[in-house]
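Appendix B, record 7
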Amino acid sequence: MSSFTVHSIPGSPFGRAVLVTLIEKSAPFRFVGVEPRSMKSEPHLSLHPFGRVPVLEHDGFRLYETQAILRYLDRVLPAPALTPADPRVAARMDQILGICDWYLHQGVNNVIGFQRIVRPRVLGLPCDEAAIAEAMPRAQVVFGELSRLLGTSPYLAGQHVSLADIVVASQMDFIAQTPEWTPLTARRPNLPAWLARMITRPSFEATTWERVAAMAKAA
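Structure tokens (predicted):
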């Protein structure tokens, strides 16, 4: 099996989703750490013209955008399958992938997670409490809908782990480290129980911020 190269920032939930998928597939990979301040300049812009992460390289083929990368990996590494075979269950997975990109990350994690974790840890700046307060109503809607869609199922798209679980858990594990996690999940106990199932998987334990940072240093 040929190896894959992943360019990302340690701690990035999008990069983590790619690494988790590769580990779930037992695929060899090399991790190349990207410095946050270097994303908008060369040589990174040659890999990703919009200056973001992650980027995947595989046998001369280069790909960016997380959903595209994950779907590619699920096609070229078909076992274990991370896309449900049933069309309706697959459609639910696709819907949740969209919710993650457009509502869980955009306007929620990129505010709460950024303010609580990235600003102090990476930038050495205090968090903006007003920005967090403004994001909380949006977060309540997103968490409410994800809780409803999960219901009593073990995973977001039914009985088995799918790409939806991987991307949402990568985002939610960030928010779970903030004080906002408790009010967001107090009346939605199925979400913490589901997240606990996900982050205790070997693929998630191997891709914490600290362990991915160690990968970057070892590269």
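Remarks on this record: The chain has a mean pLDDT of 96. The two ends are 20 Å apart (CA to CA).
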